[in-house]
Amino acid sequence: MAALDRWERRLVTIAHVIPYFVLIVTTVLYSIFTAQSAPERWFTYGVVAFGFAWMMWWFTLHPAWHRRTDLMAVFIAGMVVFYAVLGMREHWFGAVSYAVYVYASEILRGRWMFFVVALTAGLATLSLFGGYPSDAPAAFWLLMLVFVVVACTFTYVGHVTTEQSRMRKELLEENEGLHAQLLVQAHEAGVQDERHRMAGEIHDTLAQGLAGIITQLSAASSSDWERRVAVATDLARSNLAEARRSVHALRPPALDSAALHEALDDVASGWSRHNGVPVSVTLTGAVRETHPEVEVALLRTAQEALANVAKHASASRVGLTLSYMEDVVTLDVRDDGVGFDLARPSDGFGLPAMRHRVHRLSGALFVESEPGAGTAISARVPA
Length: 383
What we know:
alpha+beta; 383 residues
């Protein structure tokens, strides 16, 4: 893109310099090969100087005027008059028509561009014949027609090429802008996703572990304080390990050396031992290997659901069912606890965290509950 811009700037600079170069070269040729009287020469030199000053003032020194239609109309009209006067005096200056073509194709658009180009081509024909011939032979009209057609054709081709280049440049700039925007959005999405991940990991591990420790220590009595403290110590150690794994985005330890259904058995038995509530784990369907993120999401969902049962349900039994179907894996967690009203807003993080985990994998989370009838949570994730 930068190289293309450099080349375009160079071409524009060359196009703007060539009118001055052509005027200088034609003036030198005029001075060498013509034998006009001194007054006629000085008049021609004055017209050339006027052309230099006109181009310099109206176009080169005031680039901001290029967008002013009224000012550029005056500039182009002056260039046509300048070329008409100079070309009619001496055919050596016929090549100066190039300057009018350059300015007309850059400034004007539509029919006005072709009108000025055709008029300049006609003036170039008159310059070759030293003015309008009295008998106007057929060769004059044929040559004028050729000049007009060729000049308009090249102007049209140049105009189309310039427009295509401009459109390609705009498209490239738009694509670069979209690419940069996508990169920013991807970065922001990555940051947000990582925040959700860390929040979920902290809630699913540290928060639950600390709540369990507090529960064990609060329930300690003179008769069983040693067992309660030992359980709290085990919870603290396991949650410290979980915290380290969460920071480094590692798999939960239960999945390091066990399949998902085995990890669910371990989690359920540990939770049952700490909370004194029996948990049954059921496996249906043919077990098959799934993506690690699927296993982590389902395991964390089970942990969160069990933590909610311990905190809120006052249940006497809990059932976990892991089902391998044709294209999905489903985890169901049911309890016979007090239940809750789904219509009431909740300020807890548990259910939103579970939903976020499952939705990240294009899955779905369903919750069924009512006061006094227990709670059922179902997580369904593509296999």
